[in-house]
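lol forgot to send this yesterday, sorry. struct tokens for the thing we talked abt
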């Protein structure tokens, strides 16, 4: 089917396989992306959770940082979860040394804001634009958004903190929907990709 988008998952580090499965369940063709030539072939991209500092350094090492920034600026739809949200922020509070971002959403994020690994939790999150009740969110050393600019739209909050944001073709959640079997956030992203394909 010609309107089936080809969506990459940045496969430098993190939970790549789970995103590939979630995207396939949401009627996209999904493949791992590690190199600039692979990035050039996809209609959209997911930046998974993982360790944001490591992912930033690997993106630079693999020659992916500038091509990623160019594609985001050119309007390619991108969805970032957890560490992916951090990479899509214009600014990080207390960034690690050498940590860079791709940018794309006018927001300031706080790394590990919800606590350490052993403070991970699941929560039901109401997300604007997603029907059928709350989404199951898994928060693992998750960031939250401290503030957003005028262009960014807050689409979910948890515990008084911003946990999902959208700005034009860029979507970010501080939680991991790919770990729950609930693929509605991925379906929303696939629709975003389809709309600009």
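and heres what i got for the seq, position by position
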């Amino acid at each position: 089917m010609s309107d089936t988008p080809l969506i990459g998952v940045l496969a430098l580090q993190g939970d790549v396989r789970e995103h590939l499965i979630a995207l396939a369940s949401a009627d996209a063709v999904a493949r791992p992306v590690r190199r600039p030539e692979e990035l050039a072939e996809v209609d959209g991209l997911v930046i998974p959770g993982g360790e944001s500092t490591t992912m930033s350094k690997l993106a630079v090492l693999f020659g992916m940082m500038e091509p990623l920034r160019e594609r985001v600026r050119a309007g390619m739809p991108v969805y970032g979860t957890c560490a992916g949200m951090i990479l899509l922020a214009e600014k990080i509070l207390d960034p690690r040394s050498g940590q860079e971002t791709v940018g794309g959403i006018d927001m300031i994020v706080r790394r590990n804001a919800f606590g350490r690994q052993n403070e991970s939790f699941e929560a039901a999150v109401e997300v604007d634009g997603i029907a059928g009740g709350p989404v199951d969110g898994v928060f693992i050393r998750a960031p939250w958004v401290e503030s957003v600019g005028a262009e960014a739209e807050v689409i979910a909050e948890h515990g008084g903190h911003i946990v999902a944001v959208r700005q034009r073709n860029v979507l970010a959640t501080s939680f991991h929907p790919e770990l729950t079997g609930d693929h509605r956030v991925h379906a929303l992203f696939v629709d975003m990709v389809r709309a600009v394909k």
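The helical segments are 16-25, 36-39, 52-61, 65-73, 83-88, 184-196. anyway ping me if u want another try
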